[in-house]
Amino acid sequence: MATTADTFQAHTDEHHHDADHKPAFFARWFMSTNHKDIGTLYIIFSIFAGVIGGAISGLMRWELAEPGLQILGQVSAWLNNGGTDFDQQLHTWNVLITAHGLIMVFFVVMPATMGGFANWFVPLMIGAPDMAFPRMNNVAFWLTFVAFCSLMLSTVFPGGIGMGAGTGWTVYAPLSTSGSVGPSVDFVIFSLHMAGAASIMSSINFITTIFNMRAPGMTLHKMPLFAWSVLVTAFLLVLALPVLAAAITMLLTDRNFGTTFFDASGGGDPVLYQHLFWFFGHPEVYIMILPGFGMVSQIVATFSRKPVFGYLGMAYAMVAIGVVGFIVWAHHMFTVGMDVNTKMYFTAATMVIAVPTGIKIFSWIATMWGGSLEFKSPMVWALGFIFLFTVGGVTGVVLANGGVDDNLHDTYYVIAHFHYVLSLGAVFSLFAGFFYWFPKMSGRMHSEWLSHIQFWTFFIGVNIIFFPQHFLGMQGMPRRYPDYTPAYEAWNYVSSWGFPIMTASLVIFFINMIYAFTAGKKAPANYWGEGATTLEWSLSSPPPYHQFETLPVIEDHHSHHDAIRPASEQSAH
Amino acid sequence: MNLGEIARNRLHILPFIAAFLALLAVPQLSLAQTAGSAAPPTESSALAPVADAQAPNVADAEAPAAEAAEGSTTDAALDGSGYTPLGPEWIKGAPTAGGLTFQKQYSPDGQYALGMHDYVLLPIITAISLLVLALLLWVVVRYNRRSNPVASKTSHNTVIEVVWTVVPVLLLVAIAIPSITLLARQYKSPPEDALTVKVTGYQWYWGYTYPDNGGFEVISNMLPEDEAIARGEPPQLAADNRMVVPVGETLRIQVTGADVIHAFAVPSLWFKIDAVPGRLNERTLMINEPGIYYGQCSELCGARHGYMPIALEAVPRPQYEAWVRSKGGTLPGDAAAEPAAPPAAAPLQEPESSIEGAPGAGAPPAPADEA
User: What is the pTM of this model?
Assistant: First the structure.
């Protein structure tokens, strides 16, 4: 029978019946057109980048454990070919914090959520054989990899008083233009250009796939919430990234071609850069968290054996967060010297986002209410997420008030806020998704016991790092400082001790991975039980190289947004 | 997408629209209220009790003496007509070791903001966090697999969904009222005759210019650590030449940047404003009590971003005028002519950004003939 799957055949007719035939190693991993393999590449890449970004933050916390400069001399010597001049050491600090931010945002969270989990599971969840544009999928991955290389390369070129770009991940002009002499910032700009282009390509792919390749019977209102989260995120990326591209291109021309977009002496305005950057930058933070929201929805439903409470409310809350997220950007610029009405508007608009977000938190709790909860490790991570994201979110409500933000802007309170929603929000959702889907992806069961230990160690570690930073911020400690007056020592010392505890949990994670790949039991198709009702659980673990060559037909049994029991034959393994 | 389903979901969207409109209406109300009134520093609205009940003392040189550790030397700083820099016993605006909350506030808007945080924001966010934690713990205990082996199938409840949409909206409105009021207060223009101080951020120090007093500029660099400790001041906060201003008067602070963006901040006065090149930002500041108030640059500006602190010294008017004279400045009542010569004691410091090849120097400007 002719199905749409026929037109997506990657193989010739003689391989038509063998959906598990894989290409040879180089073709498979360097020229992939398979969404699952590309997803795997992204996940491995993001773990690798995460280790580097995390190691940098370890150096930062080590330096900040006590007043005075301790290790910056050694790091500067390494970065600057032996140079340990005071200003070089301080520039090195700025390079560290810049690299930490850029790596975590662009090369850990985004590749892991969108490149990794979305690529793996959106086609599976909607019953599609692959993404709409399999080759562009691969281009996006390798472009992301090259972008990361460009960022690493920026550290071997001068960028001011020493090697590397010391501008902060926000790359504000004029510090990044006339204030950073040398090619380093140009390499950062190229890195962002490429990473941004890759994300745009991926987003085009997701939007097209979700709109056009859902299996028969799967309407948008029956689609799993993870797919919804990816759809909204893809739209945010497509709309926001071009503005970043414009902003950083203008930086490039200001730096190299004599333009003065952000130079007042030429009629430009540094504040223009900030508007353009944050017009991207605010949607970016929702880009980082929305897929996490989607994963948490899937996990909470699975381990409560209950469908998500208020499905449409959850889906449209994400849409609302995405839409309103585009009109609040200037809350990142409250102290730039804005007019009172503007400040009042952005205060009010920012507070509005708390409403759909609160709806989600309460809906997750309502999903569990009356359910039958099993505390497997993904569920434990998801529960941690719900609580800690709430804590991070409410400090965001404090910061939303422009008048109050005057005393908190650019202090450690902001650092505490965004690390709570990111390191304790997005990262928790990443681990939740990882342990939820790892056996499906690898075919091996991880150790649940090690995952639980990892969870508690990580939980304790990151809370010790970031909770005291609220106190430091309220007491006035500014961000991006390598050293501080002795009054800030106590909480800095405590905060730094959280880091080795967090590192221990990551060691446990890697041990768990080694265990899984050497001694882990083989994973069945559905290893979580009756609560796992989305389509990926109907496939083997790992799924065949090509799945759904004959599309599943989604029937409407009881709850209409659980897509189960595909009516046609699966590619068996 | 099904239009019927969208229409049925409109209920979800109505509270958003209502909240939005309500929040947009409030600024008009608060601006109208504050337009005609002169607010004395201790005024507090019904919703935001002032955390610190200490009344500002404008010209009373006696009150600080009660706080002074030593008698005669501190009084000498504030009485008579001479000027001596305040000693470390006058430090009021500085972080405390192990501090858990904001620094004590010494300006009226700062006291209002602190009150709003401590009595409106902090209780609400604590209650929400504890509520979510309690609900999660309850769910874990009551609905775990052993306690509740059969899951219910409930996935909707219109009443609860309306409640958890409307209640947060009401909480946000409760927060927005003092919040918008605070903004309106912070943006009240200073009186025309308010003293103007122009702050310029350089890489990596501050310049304080006094246009109403002859236009002299005071350059303020961080004190090295041993020097700060020798003077009894906190390292990394202490500066050589402080920004001296009269206490108890409304000040007009104008801030700009010379090279890159810096930010002028004083946490104990709830004051922060960016110093942007090519832009002159203006804010109002009023300091309640004489004392020393520290702050730090709050926008990444290059290598020594962490090493360009702000030290404000608020003294009664007579001492301020004596200080102005000691800097070669003039006072409004002075006989005209005779522009003040820049005093030899405080030579103008060239910003590093203008010296080619210096660490803070940017790229040399393009030759004038390039289009």
Answer: 0.87
